[in-house]
Amino acid sequence: MDTIFALATARGKAGVAVIRISGPDAAQALAAFGATLPAPRRAALRQLSDTNGQPLDEALVLYFEAGASFTGEPVVELQIHGSMATAAAVLHLLSQVPGCREAEPGEFTRRALENERMDLTQVEGLADLIDAETEAQRRQALRVLSGAIGDRAEIWRARLIRAAALLEATIDFADEEVPVDVGPEVLSLIDEVSVDLTREAAGVGIAERIRDGFEVAIVGPPNAGKSTLLNALAGREAAITSDIPGTTRDVIEVRMDLAGLPVTVLDTAGLRETEDVIEGLGVTRARQRAEQADLRIFLIDAPGQEPAMPPLAEDIVVHSKSDLNQWGEGISISAKTGAGISELVTRISDVLAQRSAGAGVATRERHRLAIERALTSLDSARNQVLAGAEYAELAAEELRTAIRALDALVGRVDVENILDEIFSSFCIGK
Description:
With about 425 residues, the chain is of the alpha/beta class. About 45% of the residues lie in helices and about 15% in strands. The strands form two sheets. Strands 3-4-5-2-1-6 form a six-stranded mixed beta sheet. The protein has three domains: about 5-115, Gyrase A, domain 2; about 125-210 and about 365-410, tRNA modification GTPase MnmE domain 2 (Four Helix Bundle (Hemerythrin (Met), subunit A), Up-down Bundle); about 215-355, Rossmann fold (3-Layer(aba) Sandwich). It is built from 13 helices and twelve strands. Helix 11 packs antiparallel against helix 12 (about 390-410).
């Protein structure tokens, strides 16, 4: 296997730049700079020189032996001064070392997977952690990176292996002393795993929302103050505001962090009947995006006015322009003065936080599909067990199919077709 190297920190001027070298010739690569290895997992200052013995830089060098590094291979990390010229000179010399080449995107992490330092769900968690923008995304990604999915999958797998072994004992050792009726224990094991998997499958949608972001649509008639509210939430002039009805024709999106949750707020066209073709397209698009959104904020700007669409249970109805109108109960805001905005933000955050509480450790559609394949096999296995001992072999095969689905979940089998897609999202150096 080649020895690979890459700049592990962002390109550009910085105080420190880190260059990572991984592979069987990592130590020889360091020797090309005229430097010696420090003790394993100990940092030491080393002078780096070019092939003519001219100084390149003074670096803090770390060495990790095979089995103790991120990739599972011998790894050398060079912490050099972060000028672009210094990094370029060190990388150029490494490219001339026999057996060394620049790493491809995600190749360090791919080697960690291949060397069983991580499972596939941990790789996905690492990708999510690198992309995390909010506190909720960070916490969720860190939980996946820590191996939470793999740990649970191992428990489920052990239970199903036990159930399959009980069934196979009745088939292969019928004449020896084995439990006369293993059905109750097998059914109990199947049911325990099925309950856990069903709960996890139900939480994937919310977990995906935490990773990709919730959508909150501001809905109301023209001139209800939707764009002004969007600007107040964003803290900047994200949308054009005007007293002229129908100013907003398209959906305007602003990404923000609300109480640690990633939220995209949508400013939509005012909902009304119109003969203006362009405005009509905007109204149609506004309704579609509002229907698809995770939460809707309905602005009411006149007494007795009804929401433009039927609100769902957790949607928020807000009385706008409180600086001009006197409202009774409910949330009242003035996007111009800022009155009531904090209360509205708290309400939005509370609703989304309650939904987020339903997230499990499975976070991706791939996870959900693997879990549902396992559930289908477990349901079939349960029916076979209930049908009688003569169907034990079929039940055992369904259990093995469920186990393979769990193996696919953590990347043991049947995932080669998705690896390139996953690792292409990583930066070079990770």
